[in-house]
Amino acid sequence: MSDSAKRGLLIVVSGPAGSGKGTVLGSLLEDSEYRYSISATTRAPRPGEVDGVNYHYLTRQEFEARIKAGAMLEYTEYCGNYYGTPKKEAEAVLAGGCNLLLEIEVEGARNVKRAYPEAVLIMLLPPSFAVQEARLRGRGTETEEKIRERLARTREEVPCIGDYDYVIYNRDGRADEAVADIRAIVRAETCAIARNKNAAEDYFR
Predict the structure, then answer these.
(1) What is the pLDDT of residues 156-194, one digit of tens each?
(2) What is the three-class DSSP state of 52?
(3) DSSP, res 36
(4) Whole-angstrom distance, CA of residue 100 vs CA of residue 33
(5) Between the CA of residue 140 and those of 134, 143, 190, what are the distances in Å?
(6) Which of 73, 84, 114, 147 is least enclosed by beta carbons within 10 angstroms?
C-alpha cells in the first residue's frame, strides 16, 4: 500500500442550516475510520454545548492571534463570529490514517481546497428550499430574524455548489441513505489512481 493510501482523507461537509449535518456526521463518527475536527469559534456556547466537545470557544483576540501565528487550517467570519479549524489537530488525524470530517461553511471549504487540493468537498442539502424552511421553523429554537438570516445565507451559498465535488440530499427520515452515499464516495476516492500513484511499484515489491 502506498503512503498516500495510508493517509486519511480530508472530507469537508457543508450545508445550510436544517440540512441535518449533525445527524449524518454523527452516524459516520460511530465508525472508528472517521474523526471529527472540532472547530474553534468566537461565538458564545449554546445551552448544553461543552468547550472542547462542540467547539473550542475562543475570544476574538485569541482567535486572531492564532490566525497571525498560522495555526488555523482555514477560517471564516460568519454572522459576526469567527469559525475555523485548528491546523495541528487536523494534520495529526490525517497522518494517523483516519478520515477527517470538517463541517464548515462555503468560504472555509474553498480555503481548505486551496490549501489541500486533495480534499473531498461534499454539499449536504435538504430536498428543497421549502423543506429547509419548514425544518428551521419546526425546531422552534430561533427567532424569526435568525431564521430569515439563515435562509438568506442559503440563497448566497447554495449557488456556489459548483465549487464542490459532490452533492448529497438528506431526505426526511432517510438520513441513513445520505450516510451511505458519503461512505460510497469515500470508498471510491480511496481507490482513485490520484491517491494511489505508486500502485504499480507497490504491486511488484
Answers:
(1) 999 999 999 999 999 988 999 999 999 999 999 999 999
(2) coil
(3) E
(4) 9
(5) 10, 8, 40
(6) 114
Give CA–CA dist 4/172, Å, rounded.
Answer: 37
- Please name which of 96, 30, 106, 97 lies closest in space to residue 74, comparing C-alpha atoms: 106
For residue range 115-161, list pLDDT tens digits in order: 899 999 999 999 999 999 999 988 878 888 989 989 999 999 999 99
The b-or-e profile of 149-182 (16+ CB within 10 A means b, else e) is ebbebbeebbeeeeebebebbbeeeebeebbebb
Cα→Cα distances 117→10, 29, 98, 189, 194, Å: 10, 24, 18, 13, 11
- % of the chain exceeding 90 in pLDDT: 69
Beta-bridge mates of residue 124: 168
